[in-house]
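worker-03 picked up job from queue 'complexes'. Input manifest follows; two sequence lines, order preserved.
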Amino acid sequence: MPALDWRLVVKALAGFVAGLAVWLLLSPQYDRLIARCAEATLRTFEKPPVTRLRPGEDQYVTVDRTDFGSGSQRPAIPLRDLTFNFVLLTALFATGKRPFSDRNIAGFLIASVLLGLTHIGAAITEVMSIYVAKLGLWSNVHYGSFARNFWGVANHFYRLVLMYAIAFALWWIFRGNDGDERTKTRGRRRR
Amino acid sequence: MRAPMQRPQVLFLVKFFVILIAAYLLIAWNPVNDNVIVPFTAWIARTSGWLLNLMGQGVTMNGTIIASSKFAVNINNGCNGVEAMLILLASIGAFPAPIKSRGIGLLLGALAIQVLNAVRIITLFLIGAHYPKYFDSFHTAVWQVIIILAAIVFFLIWSSRVARTRLATSS
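worker-03 finished. Artifact:
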């Protein structure tokens, strides 16, 4: 059984708590920003541009289209379910040998910006998965089975594992080589 | 100035995503989902329900549903620990290590994830029954991240041990 490295566990938990606090505090503003960027991207590819994403007070973003009937129900998406991998990213960066080093902080900031871009992509995927499959006859008329499968699988894959894999990969790329150096040093000491 | 990633690190990431995608497609395939994932999830529900009954919660289990007079949960993909096991499988599979070390790592890691997952289901059920307004936050941001973080921390400890053993052997 691998011996438990308590310093690593404590650092990860401290990073988790800090990340959770920041995420809870900034989520209302962050959700608005992501909704605005996702809406702009969707409208760029729509002819005519019809999608409107309206953040509400209840942590949900209402998906509206100007071509929807006035009496029809508007679906809503929980943006927070797509963005909480920020907490994982923070926890992972906290596990570094020197979490507050300039290098680690810079890596964390770059990774956070890139994570934000993936959140816009995730919001678009969520909206598209509603368009292709959850609007009954309207979905069947406007989208084929390829689009239904593509956006459905993309959305399910993101929610199940990809959102965590992205946070892990960004940390792996931007963490520096602390972990490797630590392993090598220990190896040399043993010799 | 940030040093560019070395080839083994890039290779690790490529292998990680290839294994992750392959494993995801396998479990998302209907025959595997219906004959492996759903029965496995039902077993998790039965075990967690049994533990909740030991704590005097008076729950009944029906398939993947755990219910009491106060609250009910349906355990789906994302709450059965399979997502964390996929991350563990992809990371251990992508890391250069002997087959035996990988097997032991996967087995112990999966066991640790499932023990932690049982704690997650029990605490979520209790939160849902007694403090329902906190259920959503704990269900997603708190427990989901803790389970994945546990899988990654396990991988870091395991890989560090494997790398040390390799260095000691090669010297």
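worker-03 released lock.
The first strand of chain A starts at residue 51 and ends at 55.
Chain A has one domain: 6-190.
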